[in-house]
Amino acid sequence: MTVELTRLDNGMIVATDRLEHVQSVALGAWVDVGARNETPDINGISHMLEHMAFKGTRRRSALQISEEIENVGGQMNAYTSRENTAYYCKVLHEDQELAIDVIADILQNSTLDAKELERERQVILQEIGQANDTPDDIVFDYFQETALPDQALGRSILGSPENVSSLSRDDLFDFMSRRYSPKRMVFSASGKVDHQQIVDLVSEKFDNLPAHEDHEMEALRYEGGNRIEQRDLEQVHVIFGLPTVSYTDDSFYDLQVFNTLLGGGMSSRLFQEIREKRGLVYSVYSFSSHYVDGGLFSIYAGTGPNDIGELMPVMCDELVRATVDLTEEEVNRARAQLKASVVMGMESNSGRCETLARQIQIFGGPQTMEEIIAKVEAVDLERVRAAGKSLLGGTPTVTALGPVKGMPGYDDLAARLRA
Question: Which pLDDT band, with edges at 50, 70 and 90, does 309 fall under?
Fold first, then answer.
């Protein structure tokens, strides 16, 4: 990895990762602002801004933004998460100046045209409606809200229909001017790049960002609890979870190994016991969500109404059992899966570009593939067992959506985690 960093005079960090064997460049701006920076009355504004950024600037119409990138065979997109918003492109290396210019333009010169805003408002309302009609999607929002109630991290990234309907052009301008400061941005590029050339282009193009910084962020407060909603569906969609550590905690990789062997693949304990041996589900897996100050460890499954009564206790029991009778073989296999995932992820310059930006935002600097693999290899059986045990005994979060009549009681499930 040939990574170079430069902090510009305005505070923005420019990071490049040169790859000799490709002809393309993946690049973009990662803004350290997301849904957790929103107050309740403007929840959903980060996502709306991401949409509106492509709807025209003082120099380009919405059509011109897409045409200029696609005319050279490039791709452009964006996403909003709870802790950041990203605007990125992938182009041939000879078109990198165009890509940087377009990204700089939409982040500095968006007009947020009133007619476009009304059209995009309807698009986002459709997006919210689609999510609400997709049970194996909306159950994740229910889980987040139940685990982290009455706080920014617990609210939907899309926002509520009421908020989306009422957010004004002035609200968008105000949020962007207060939060999109250069000190909160990392411009990352990976592929056939020259670091100084990228630095010069970014320095030239990003010349009109707000100078001041307003970066309110509400701290994570885990509460947990129970949300069960009856719906006329074929399956019950359920998520069971517990609080866990942040990205930067010393036990982060211990937990990743535990997560992988518990529910990270077809050889995992959950898959083998619940699907292969008992036939209770089509889909079951564990996953973890991490933030700068905490995280959530969760298990998802979808099952029929006649099987939910058996499924939920087995999920709890497998979680507890995995902290007791782990084997070296399981730990070795999980480590191998994680190492392979790291290596394969570094084969894409798009993946490398995003990883580099996020590492700088989370850790303050890049981590090499060798450093990450060394951390995974250092995880042993006792550390994995300890990571699993750290999940037990706390207040769980249980959310279920569908024909929930046979759902076990919350207290009964919580008691199994204290066994």
Answer: very high
